[in-house]
Amino acid sequence: MQPGMDHLDALEAQSIYIFREAFARLKKLALLWSLGKDSNVMIWLARKAFFGRVPFPALHVDTQKKFPEMYAFRDHYSKEWGLDLKVDHCPPVEAIDPTLPPAARSAARKTEGLKLALNKYGFDGLIAGIRRDEEATRAKERVFSPRGLEGGWDVRDQPPEFWDQFNASPPPGAHLRIHPILHWTEADIWAYTKRENIPIIPLYLAKDGKRYRSLGDADITFPVPSTASTIDEILIELEGTKIPERAGRALDHETEDAFERLRVAGYL
Amino acid sequence: MNVIASNLASNAALATPNGTTRPQVSIVIVGHVDHGKSTLVGRLLHETGSLPDGKLEMLKAVSARRGMPFEWSFLLDALQTERDQGITIDTTQIRFRTRSRDVVLIDAPGHAEFLRNMITGAAQADGAVLIIDALEGVRDQTRRHGYLLHLLGVKQVAVVVNKMDRVDFSAERFGAIRDEISAHLTGLGLAPTAVIPISARDGDGVAERTPKIDWYDGPVVVEAIDALQPARPLDELALRLPVQAIYKFDDRRIVAGRIESGGLSAGDEIVIMPAGKIANIRSVEGWPSSPTGAQGAGRSVGITLDRELFVERGDVIAHVGSAPRDTRRIRARIFWLHEQPLAAGASILLRLGNKETRAVVVAIEKAVDPGELSSAETKAIARNHVGEIDISLAQPLAADPYVDNPRTGRLVIEVNGRIAGGGLVLSVDAGQRAVPVDIVPVESALRPEERSARYRHNGAVVWLTGLPGSGKSTLARALERKLFSDGGSPILLDGDTLRAGLNGDLGFSPEDRAENIRRLAEIATHLARNGHIAIVAAVSPSREDRAAARRIADDTFREIYVATPADVCERRDPKGHYAKARAGVLHGFTGIGNDYQPPESVELTIDTSSCTVSDAADEIERMLIRTGVLFDEVTDIAANI
User: Which intervals hold domain Phosphoadenosine phosphosulphate reductase (chain A) (predicted)?
Assistant: First the structure.
């Protein structure tokens, strides 16, 4: 039999390559774990890349407003997966730019929490589970994405990146965002989760005609109508749907550029 | 499944998550700014039913709120800044499906300022769509993009002539543009797969052949995309596994990396380049379980070896017999993206695969503005220009010419921590020596012609090889005396004499012999470059070592095989070596041990058992005249006084 690769094999191999490049080229890495389906796949891929162990901390920047199921998941799997878990809390909403619309202002707590954690630990690389297909500004991202000293993203001056040659020399004090699953789609994540039997938070599966497609803070994330109660059913649902993934995220819909403003400031 | 079919399936067709098998191709859309790339992409997404519900309505509402007519390009230019400036800034990847395949569409910006983003996008593409405004016709930027596609190795290009509505769907106008762009692309070896008249805004020629272009009988855009071939199979090339890292998380020592081409299995005999160390693959490791069977191109793997070798990031693992060249000298065709032009003498950081090394640009051989396709100056390569350069590396690395392996035959250049250019390896170590980084050779105060005029000859390395006792030293001394008498500047370099000093640290192992020859060749070449005739008398038994000496001395090298029969040599035994070797007290002596490799092609062969020393010296002199070392006119100095 020839060593054929299927679609998921190809995605996996590329992600492992990115993980290994990040680990080889940066000194102090951390992986951002939001407990969602994407970051769980990401941790799984990291374990594949490093033969069962994640050789850098998993950082949860906690708004303390997540669903109880998410905290239970974190506490269980950080132990089972042998993660070096670091949990850091976000500043209160009162400390955040009041000119932002309410949901965006709430989400911006994460950006501030992230900045505090970066300063505290001195990471020069943050691995994040964003995907190109999620949102238009994320589609513009590099795999190794330089951030300014304040954590900001200059979309107009990104370095060239091609042939899997990544720019990995952040200026002193600045850091890089590394995106190992940038090339995956929502359907890829689910198909892979199923194939690899990766545990998920049950909120993704339909109950009473609704399910969460994307998990954020409990107060600004809403379930979408769905009857998909298994991963197979989710895949069938995604085949047919034209509803964007982040439809249940309030902040995306407040103003035309709310999300972009957040991302330029350092939001994921 | 038979072998051929499954091999094809592994490359040309990727199984989709839902289990169907459809080929996947990635294409890039390039062209001059404002020629309608984003509009075409928006239209393509609409025509193939790939837009999320409500997206169209949302964009219509946004347009209305801004008091602008609806633009398909709004779809992609989702960023605030882009809408304000009206230009696409960066590459965006979008997926859609045609009848027969899954397409990853890379939208590349056309603004000259953002050429680096176009390259970032185009470098990953299997094929390209080049867009031209029917009214404006072929522009500099169009030609530049065509050239860059060629440079990046993109082989398939479909051309679309957009905004046909602005030229009343004129078949004549279309024909003129088609002929001009076809000639340009064909000149680059990049014949277009189709040239299509369209109006992206109204949909003519995108998914349907509308009445307005009924005079056109070629494929429409969707059909042309359907006809693009996925990338060429890398499994069929030789194994190349660039080493990303060595992990020692437990008692295993795992060599990790991605197989760029070919395949490997446990048990394979491999060679680690550039050092050339050989080992066997003991196991292929994985988590949660180790994979079984052969691993093919594209896989990120981990392997263990059957012996402890020093392996490091940047090494390349290959199969014995099909390894890449190790080199400290590379010729490359590059595109330059940095503000600061790339000039000869520049110190750069070069990255090829996972290898990173400092390097110096030895020469800029060609510098071209791809818009003009005319040769610019050759001292430096300006921003957004392309050129051919000769690079000397601080450390050896393993590389392939791009034509042999697209994955290990391409490199990037980094300046101040940022990728500043990239390109394709044209050739590896073209027989020239690497110039060590940070060493600046000081040239002689005299020009070679000045010495030639005095000595009546050019500089040369006259290399006498042959068995011990064949008469090399005797001949060399006779030649030295003769050339000196004629007013020349000969210098004798005897192998044994140098071993008494400069090469005193060397023994007689093959490595030490090779180093001995290398040093002799370096000194002799230095003398030759300064106008002297260096006469080297050295057994130099290895054909390979002599070939290396010839590479070092290049066109100044003249090889003479002193082909005296072995029994005659042993009878002469001027230094008593044969006797000692026969008595078993001289080990590693060439002659008795039959390890002399006679040359296959030399400038001159002399058998000293059948001619006198004086005749032999005359014969050498004639050869030197014949091959342009000695000036064959008057050699009588007195006549010139």
Answer: 29-221
